[in-house]
Write a structure and sequence with these properties.
122 residues, mainly beta, 4-stranded antiparallel sheet, 11 strands, globular
Length: 122
């Protein structure tokens, strides 16, 4: 059974930083792409970033490009999202997801974590 467990969320002031982690188990981590999505209250889930199985390529939503960095450690079965220069509009529940290929489309991912809350105060 695949499990994805996010951690690292919290309350931060605008301009601050947070690093989210997502620990995976249940199948060979290094064979799968990983993605981060987020969902704010009253809004649809939106793509944030994705990374290939090897970590050689990354892709970002325009809204976070230059501020967020996705990375992975295949030895630790963990994917990270470093978030810098946070803005109040980044407030959302952040989810990690696992799929065969990197994608900005949520339906392309097979498994999802439970989410971690990120709140950015102004």
């Amino acid at each position: 059974q695949v499990q994805l467990v996010e951690s690292g969320g919290g309350l931060v002031q605008a301009g601050g930083s947070l690093r989210l982690s997502c620990a995976a188990s249940g199948r060979t981590f290094s064979r799968y792409a990983m993605g981060w999505f987020r969902q704010a209250p009253g809004k649809e889930r939106e793509f944030v970033a994705t990374i290939t199985d090897s970590g050689s390529r990354t892709y970002y939503a325009d809204s976070v490009k230059g501020r967020f960095t996705i990375s992975r450690d295949n030895a630790k079965n963990t994917v990270y999202l470093q978030m810098n220069s946070l803005k109040p509009e980044d407030t959302a529940v952040y989810y990690c997801a696992q799929g065969l290929t990197p994608s900005g489309t949520a339906s392309r991912y097979d498994y999802w974590g439970q989410g971690t809350q990120v709140t950015v105060s102004s």
